Amino acid sequence: MSEQQNPYFRTKPLATILEESKEKKEGLKRALNAVDLTAIGVGAMIGAGIFVLTGTAAKEAAGPAIMLSYVFAGISCILAALCYAEFASRLPISGSAYTYSYASVGELFAWIIGWDLVLEYTIGSSAVAVGWAEYLGQLVHLPDWLIHLPLQMPWGGDYHINALAGIMILCLTALLAIGIKESAQFNSFIVAVKVGVVLFVILAGLFFIDPANWHPFTPYGPNGTACPEGAFCWDGIFTGAALVFFSYIGFDAVSTAAEEVKDPQKNMPIGIMASLGICTLLYIAVAAVITGMVPYQEIDQGAPLAAAFGSVNLDWAKTLIGIGGVAGLTTVVLILLMSQPRIYFSMARDGLLPPWFARIHPKFRTPVNATILTGLIAATIAAFAPMEDLHHMVSIGTLFAFTMVSASTLILRYKQNKTDLKSTGYVIAIAIGLGLVSVGFMADNNPVQITLWLLGSLLVTMPTWKLLQIKTLNLPETFRCPWVPWVPITGMACMIFMMVQLSQAAWFRLGWWLVIGFLIYAFYGIWHSKLKRNE
């Protein structure tokens, strides 16, 4: 079937993408180096995860084994990051996973992933901004009305407005509209502050560790039940990994800035891998210190780091950690707000969104319309929307995006020509098989479990064998993901397995979000696509 007959799978030519990535006078400005990119990645990752979720995941899911949860989540992200690094060096253009899917899988999948990234970046920045306002309120004792302004609704009932979270997002939006380099410099300064605080937590906390607090190491078994005494239970570790995965949201934000990077073929892989490696080591060390200082049952879920030092009578350290928390959450919001407009910009340039989203400011050379719109939406959500369980929604959206990038790496490596869909079909079958195997681990009924494992294993094994019969593409001399197809398949397996650990409510919300996105594509995107006009 030709591309003209199958618009859903038409792909954007690599030559077109590379031409768009060249710096133009009226285009985005290339101003970032490897250090800037590493700081962007660290700035996006060290925030709500390390300052809040570590306590929640340790207390409710993994206990002291939260250290291994971070190891598992980190390894999964490294596998995905290798795929991101290959694409980011080959396709140094704004758009991140959206652009990568457009070049490999096809237009419909690219739209789905782009719409999914709206969920990750916009709602993620809103959720983190709410946490930032709460942290700042505790640190400097702000008036309560700034964070919990009561509002009587006309239809009855009380409502609370978080004005401070909305104001903070609008201020960062103004900074982002002025310029990427200015934003990067501000981010680098704040990153230095919060990394210093995290290192303080690790080094100072070492003197207060009681090894007895690490026993039992894996207190939780299947479905939150107690792990049998003397046994080692992986269930809580995997559940904890799905929860703390929110901590890793952000390394993919590095790739959204690819079109503003000097020498992207060299600097993009360095920025992605360096930021991820630094954060993974810091996460594991902090988890070890906190669970060693405080029994996991007594960890404070709201401010675990500050409370841990308070428990050993180091109240002055609580203030320092509060400063680090505010700094950490500030850069997370900044990077997420920076990333989303570049997704809109790329989608509008391809015709899938109106051209208004692709307007670049003539002086600042930033996607000004998309930046302002993102800030207004995020500020509104942060100020007015309840934030309960939103981190689950953001996590499942991010895991879905990472799965798509790993799958796209496979498809593009084994795709013989623009209209060949064999590799696409094989990779989709592998993903379904991995999903069945993952669900099998959750099944309580042994016959059902064995059936799912056998069927899933068959769906993974046969398409993988078929892929190995296809000669891979000769790639240009840029960074390449090693050990293909094994690294992308293993990455997909880890991501899908963690998705299965999340709640049914998270899956339900993701489904509705994708349905809304498909309707927008069906009524606008597919008819205004530049690829359609070129055909």
Would you write up a description of this structure?
Strands 1-2 form a two-stranded antiparallel sheet. The N terminus is likely disordered. It is mainly alpha-helical. Helix 2 crosses helix 14 and helix 9 packs parallel to helix 12. The chain has a single domain, classed as Amino acid/polyamine transporter I (Up-down Bundle), CATH 1.20.1740.10. Helix content is 68%, strand content 1%. The protein contains 21 helices and two strands.
Summarize the structure.
This protein has 21 helices and two strands. The chain has helices spanning 14-21, 34-45, 48-62, 66-90, 97-104, 107-140, 144-147, 163-178, 180-205, 235-244, 253-256, 264-293, 304-310, 315-349, 368-384, 390-414, 422-442, 446-468, 486-501, 504-528, 530-534, and strands at 149-152, 158-161.
Keywords for this entry:
1% strand, 535 residues, two-stranded antiparallel sheet, globular, Amino acid/polyamine transporter I
Name of the CATH class: Mainly Alpha
Shape: globular
- Radius of gyration (CA) equals 23 Å
CATH homologous superfamily assignment: Amino acid/polyamine transporter I
Number of helices: 21
Strand content: under 5%
Secondary-structure element order, N to C: HHHHHHHEEHHHHHHHHHHHHHH
Summarize the amount of helix as a percent range: 55-70%
Write down the domain tally. Answer: 1
Q: Strand order, main sheet: write it out.
A: 1-2
Mean of residue pLDDT values: 85
